[in-house]
Amino acid sequence: MAPELDTRAAVEVASFADRLVEAVERKRSQLVVGLDPVAELLPMELRGDARTSRGQFADAFSRFCRGIVDAVAPYAVAVKPQIAFFEALGAEGVRAFEETCAYARQAGLLVIVDAKRGDIGSTARAYASAFLEPRPPEGPLGDALTVNTYLGRDSIEPFLSACKRHGGGLFCLVKTSNAGSIDVQDMALSDGRPLWKIVAHMVNELAQEAIGECGLSNVGAVVGATHPRAVAEARKLMPQSVFLLPGVGAQGGTPADVARAFTSGPASALVSASRSVIYAYRNDPELDWRPGAGAEAKRLRDEVWAVSGW
Amino acid sequence: MAPELDTRAAVEVASFADRLVEAVERKRSQLVVGLDPVAELLPMELRGDARTSRGQFADAFSRFCRGIVDAVAPYAVAVKPQIAFFEALGAEGVRAFEETCAYARQAGLLVIVDAKRGDIGSTARAYASAFLEPRPPEGPLGDALTVNTYLGRDSIEPFLSACKRHGGGLFCLVKTSNAGSIDVQDMALSDGRPLWKIVAHMVNELAQEAIGECGLSNVGAVVGATHPRAVAEARKLMPQSVFLLPGVGAQGGTPADVARAFTSGPASALVSASRSVIYAYRNDPELDWRPGAGAEAKRLRDEVWAVSGW
Predict the structure, then answer these.
(1) Contact B199/A188, CB-based, under 8 Å?
(2) In the 8-state DSSP scheme, what is residue A10?
(3) Among the partner residues A4, A154, A180, nearest to B153 by beta-carbon distance
């Protein structure tokens, strides 16, 4: 988008899938901690700083997310900042988002930007540039990005192209965790299959174009942990894709519900939990927020690793 | 999201559809000008200012978009800033996006934020807050927002709720203008219909919840001008929705292709053109960029009004 800022040359960096496999095996963890900062839920000590301006709220978001990163870094392989919560504060919020991404990468965590972007042609390239291309002198904001598949294969290709150049990864929405996912994703096609299985087929084709040395693809899939049967079926349809499984914790899914996602290897699925980890301190008035998040991350990491069978 | 910044009380503002009808009739225009700033395509005088930093590129984007707003304000009812191009420059780009939205509203244009957001529950509420809720002391960034429908009805409802409180509008993706839209949107369902018609049915149900005094709904639909037959069919399925019709100009659609979208009234469809208007100066080395955009906006406004039959 900005020629002087854009480096089109391929960078010598291991692919997302390969870096993920290394991190999963080293940390014995398949845990992704979602960063969903919400003003009303922040610890008092941070809320006290944020009274009047968007900039002050954004500073509090940044401090909160950096504290969570410190607390969960030993137990999680990645954080998943949800950009919507930052965008709610406008440009100042996006600055806090950028600080959070940079801090997490420095802490040795992979960053999965949860933005669910989806658009066509030059617009998709602009989004890819925003999240997956290096920002000299720094790297990309994200190691991977969630993308929406409703616009079809040509809307995903610009993202995939950026991933190939810069070692990034994608998580394509296939079957989302919400109850309303049935409205579109579960529509029965003429051959009886629900729509999401066709999307899974498309994602699997894209995945074949971007297999890492580890054998897993840099094109992954979002499959809600709230639909255990769909998780097992999706695994068969996309055998080499890493699954990002939201919905464990506050949304009601359990690690046992997603055990079958791990049959393609210890790094073939990632369990994502947000509120149940980052706001764990709210269940125990004695608990400081950072150790609270760390303890819940450790507990969930251990539980997921156990059910994964590795 | 940020309690001190959030005004939950309903604001006494006319609904989006009613404000749109007033603007369309006053300007005799159904033209929306898309703002897609791309560094390589900016006029030399602006590119000269942008050499090294993201902030300088963002300043150039902001100056460019404000110049376009001045040039097209007499002929367009709305501008449609595509946020991807601004996000490519990070927080500085989002600042330029905010400046552009504020400037366009001051110039008497409606602002349709093209962000194609789609997510669930509290995340959708955060996006609604970002784009459709007031930012005291100012109003919302956008008068309306494009949203993605793949996640289902419960993912749209938080946006609709914000629209009802603050007089905003939605344009739900139904049938997009890209060739790859067939991959998912045209999948044949068990009753033979393509998927997008089911989405149109869902959008029409949501539209019934938000009819303005003018009889049109605040829940509209995106239907690509590149699919003329789908436009005519979509009109029957969503009789009270305003259609946002991208794809005229650079993507190959013509005003004649979408004439049948206007059968529900002069404001029942909006033709959106981006590159063919804002970069019109590139076709004529004698032309200054602002008058170039103004002349093309006037030409297209007149052509669309003529085919609309009003």
Answers:
(1) no
(2) P
(3) A180
Contacts of residue A253, defined as CB under 8 A and 6 or more positions apart, other chains included, come to A177, A224, A225, A226, A228, A245, A247
CB neighbours of B161 closer than 8 A, spacing ≥ 6? B128
Range 110-129 of B in CB contact (< 8 A) with A? 116-124, 126-127, 129
Whole-number CA gyration radius for chain B: 19
* Full-model pTM: 0.95
CA–CA separation, A270 and A126 (whole Å): 27
| Per-residue pLDDT at A7 | 44
Q: Are A288 and A281 in contact (CB under 8 A)?
A: yes
**So what's the ipTM on this one?**
0.95
CA distance B174 to B181: 10
In whole numbers, what is the pLDDT of chain B averaged over residues?
94
- Write out pLDDT tens, residues A194-241: 999 999 999 999 999 999 999 999 999 999 999 999 999 999 999 999
Q: Does B90 touch chain A (CB under 8 A)?
A: yes
Dihedral sign, Cα of residue B27, residue B31, residue B36, residue B37: negative
**What kind and span of H or E run contains A59?**
helix A54-72
Interface probe with A: pick from B151, B176, B201, B205, most Cβ of A within 10 Å: B151
**Is residue A116 within a helix (H) or strand (E), and if so which, with residue range?**
strand A110-117
With beta carbons less than 8 A apart as the criterion, state whether B260 and B232 touch.
Answer: yes
Q: How far apart are CA A264 and CA A239, in angstroms?
A: 6
Question: Chain B residues with CB inside 8 Å of A50's CB?
Answer: 2
8 Å CB contact of B94 and A90: yes
Q: Is B89 on the interface with A (CB under 8 A)?
A: yes
Angle at A232 between CA A176 and CA A143, to 5 degrees: 55
Q: Give chain B positions within 8 Å (CB) of A173.
A: 150-151
Q: Whose CA is closest to B226, among B242, B210, B245?
A: B245
Whether the predicted pLDDT of B229 surpasses 60? yes
- Cβ atoms of B78 and B110 within 8 Å: the answer is yes
| Average pLDDT of span B268-289 | 94
CA–CA separation, A161 vs A290, rounded Å? Answer: 38
The tokens describing A119, both together, are 């658009």
- Which of A52, A85, A124 is facing B126, going by the closest CB pair? A85
Cβ–Cβ below 8 Å for A54 and B135:
yes
pLDDT of residue A49: 64
pLDDT at position A85 over 90: yes
Residue B91 at interface with chain A, using a CB cutoff of 8 Å = yes
Which residue from B39, B124, B151 is facing A1, i.e. has the nearest CB?
Answer: B39
The reported pLDDT for the residue numbered A3 is: 41
Residue type, B145: L
Q: Is B204 on the interface with A (CB under 8 A)?
A: no
Please judge whether A4 and B51 are an interchain contact, meaning their C-beta atoms are less than 8 angstroms apart. yes
The helix-helix angle for B195-208 and B153-166 (nearest 10°) equals 30
What is the count of residue pairs from A and B with beta carbons less than 8 Å apart? 221
Given this model, what pLDDT does residue B50 score? 64
As to burial, measured by CB atoms within 10 angstroms (0-12 exposed, 13-18 middle, 19+ buried), residue A204 is: buried
Query: What number is the average pLDDT over the span B72-81?
Result: 98
Helix residue ranges per DSSP H, B107-227: 121-132, 153-166, 182-185, 195-208
